[in-house]
Specification:
CATH topology: Nucleoside Triphosphate Pyrophosphohydrolase
Radius of gyration: 15 Å
Helix content: 10-25%
Distance between the termini: 44 Å
Number of strands: 8
Order of helices and strands: EEEEHEEEEH
CATH architecture: Alpha-Beta Complex
Number of helices: 2
Shape: globular
Length: 140
């Protein structure tokens, strides 16, 4: 049985990076006013392209969006979130910067935050459970 067209939502797979500095601060980025979910904070990343793995996506997207090269240490559990017009499967990775200096190409702003300040921001809804799970991993 198929669903009526009105119930079908576009599903987008996205990789995101929880970039941790040597002093354990977390990089967060603010979406620009012209992006969907304007001015919301998020972990940087982007859509997985055809024939691309989530790991390849995050390296490519971070280079494109932030002008830095990263390495990954861990993959966290994926999060599925349903927005009004689309659904997102968010695949988070814990990363660190290997080379480069941050230069924003799409976002309005970035911040380095202490983990205890992460949940104080106005987050894109899909990123909230990622932030919460990351914080739980620190308490183990």
């Amino acid at each position: 049985m198929s669903l009526p067209k009105s119930n079908l939502q576009k599903i987008i797979q996205v990789s995101c990076a929880i970039i941790v500095s040597e002093d354990r601060k977390i990089l967060v980025t603010q979406r620009s006013a012209s992006m969907s979910l304007p001015l919301k904070w998020e972990f940087p990343g982007g859509k997985i392209e055809k024939e691309e793995s989530p790991e390849q996506t995050i390296v490519r997207e971070i280079k494109e969006e932030l002008n830095i090269e990263i390495s990954m240490s861990n993959k966290l559990p994926s999060v599925t979130h349903h927005y009004e017009n689309f659904s997102i499967i968010l695949i988070p990775f814990i990363c660190k910067i290997e080379h480069g200096e941050i230069k924003l190409s799409e976002h309005q702003a970035f911040r380095w935050l202490n983990p205890n300040k992460l949940l104080d921001l106005d987050w894109a809804e899909a990123d909230i459970p990622v932030a919460q799970y990351y914080l739980q991993t620190l308490n183990k």
